[in-house]
Amino acid sequence: MLELRPNCECCDKDLPPDSREAMICSFECTFCASCAGTVLGGRCPNCGGGFAPRPIRPPAALARHPASAVRVLKPEGCRPAAEG
């Protein structure tokens, strides 16, 4: 089950569970659509993979399985993944 992380790892923008701006990679690194598309050029800086929109958990399921409250932020700032 997805953690539904609460913020963009790059700019720290809040991304609540129902946000349509949340983008994730296959490892569930979480970024806002703006950072994912512009700053990172569509590639995760952690794994080099692409992004997909994060699914929205239905409210009844969210009540039983709440979103994570753990914020992840890169203190050194975001940088695009190195070419492989």
Could you please describe the fold and organization of this structure?
The protein contains 2 helices and 3 strands. With about 80 residues, the protein is an alpha+beta fold. It has one domain (about 1-60): Herpes Virus-1 (2-Layer Sandwich). Strands 2-1-3 form a 3-stranded antiparallel β-sheet. The N and C termini lie far apart (about 30 Å).
Structural domain count: 1
Name of the CATH architecture:
2-Layer Sandwich
CATH class: Alpha Beta
Strand content: 5-15%
Mean pLDDT: 93
Number of strands: 3
Order of helices and strands: EEHEH
> Which residues sit in consecutive blocks of at least 5 with pLDDT less than 50?
none
Which strands sit side by side, in order, in the main sheet?
2-1-3
Give the topology, please.
Elements (H helix, E strand, L loop, with lengths): L21 E3 L5 E3 H7 L12 E2 L5 H6 L20
Antiparallel strand pairs: 1-2, 1-3
